[in-house]
């Protein structure tokens, strides 16, 4: 999917320069899919007595109460926006629901009455709520504000925000309440650097300050979950581990993408090591949710792309990692059955989990949440509208499926979204389209050396938003349309042969994508700085609108925009894509060499070839960047 649907980030910059209007501030995160009738369960939490599961249904704007004994939904509750996170009070009487929207809220639900009793405003796309151990403070990730809200529950009010690097999507607190860990979905730097990786942020809850950002191994991105062990000594993080520095010539043995679980040593606030969840000939694509068992003996991970659950013997894994030396002992006996000889080998070892992990296949599609209840594992399956249950005490451990609602006819758009996230259509299950463009068809912010324009010239991943309306596709415009790109991606990136109806379904999903309002808007409108920047944008002396006219905000042409790098040819010119949602697609330019929008206008525009910006004052440059980030 990468090869054919990627377009140049360089051109991305140009298009941002021409938007004349902004998306509605009330636009839904799922667009038309919010009205599709599907439930799309995306979060789970169990009561302490193990009798009830609460299920957040993202596209139905609903929370379901599932009775475990009867195996049925007992009741439902409508909430004001997409519920992307749940957490229960210790006594089970209150359920906190993050309702994600450009202006999100936390709904406090009286679980006995099944009624919303209070609503607390939060930020843009609130998710992953976490309660402090004393139950007095609620922490909420505001994904697109790049911050965490700190909410005083006695006042029922947000009292502060803690800035984190980029797109916080999951959080966990230590048992003593002293540390809050935050998983950042994407990295924040240039994509053309030697080392590119997302980080886990550790926040000191007493001071409300960031203690440390822990970088994961090179290529780490698309983080999804973070969980702390019951004893508070370790944390685990799910993510993709991309081998972006290699040409995309094959998939075997994780050549392009591997799927990982990183372990953080909380006694040292440092990365302990990273283990691959894949097997040598069987990828475990798109690790999503994670959970430690209450006794600390198991780590369970869902694989949203291959529709599985990994059950890992946690003490055995930690012991095995602890025994790995930092350097080779020349006097030690060599174990020729082990792929890893030193700790640094482990993140490349597809056999490290052999003997300490069991992979369990589900009958359902897209497990994105997990809850452990006694000896049973429950997963919430986004695309099947179901729960899976795995009874580990049964003689034959398999997964059963429980529907959460009436069976629905699969629409073309829903099928396309399902395929976009489905790694079982890929050779050996190594990756899905979402492994490089995330689940909502945006970007992993990495550079990839795709073969469509030759070898040795990596290009930055691009959002798929509006791709069908802004041909040609790819940074060099080598695919005439997005339809061509979709088919080429299935063949050359997923290394698969699929029915024509699959490509058509993916096309319809991509066409259904709608822009999300920028977090830089103020009450849905341009800030004063952005309004000044808009005037500059359309000023002929700056010239942004010349290549990015109103409408699609692209001329649909290719240009020499002065951004050729060391891997480009002298004759290379770059396609001009739309800049809608440019605020969420950093780094910029075709090679990801511009970290910020300001860099695009200054250090990466020395010859004024993508906008005449040399004559602008620092304030004017900031204003223009503010406008571009508001589109």
Structural features, described:
With 631 residues, this protein is of the alpha+beta class. Among the domains are: 175-331 and 357-361, YVTN repeat-like/Quinoprotein amine dehydrogenase (Methylamine Dehydrogenase, Chain H); 413-512, Cytochrome Bc1 Complex, Chain D, domain 2; 521-628, Cytochrome c-like domain (Cytochrome Bc1 Complex, Chain D, domain 2, Orthogonal Bundle), CATH 1.10.760.10. Helix content is 14%, strand content 30%. The protein has 11 helices and 32 strands. Helix 6 (482-492) crosses helix 7. It starts with a helix and ends with a helix.
Topology readout:
Layout: H1 2-5, H2 9-16, E1 41-46, E2 52-57, E3 62-67, E4 72-78, E5 82-88, E6 94-100, E7 105-110, E8 115-121, E9 126-131, E10 137-142, E11 147-152, E12 157-163, E13 168-173, E14 179-184, E15 199-204, E16 209-215, E17 220-228, E18 234-242, E19 257-265, E20 270-276, E21 287-292, E22 298-303, E23 308-313, H3 314-322, E24 357-361, E25 367-373, E26 376-381, E27 386-391, E28 399-403, H4 412-420, H5 434-437, E29 447-448, E30 459-460, H6 482-492, H7 500-512, H8 528-537, H9 544-547, E31 558-559, E32 574-575, H10 597-601, H11 618-628
Antiparallel strand pairs: 1-2, 2-3, 3-4, 5-6, 6-7, 7-8, 9-10, 10-11, 11-12, 13-14, 14-15, 15-16, 17-18, 18-19, 19-20, 21-22, 22-23, 23-24, 25-26, 26-27, 27-28, 29-30, 31-32
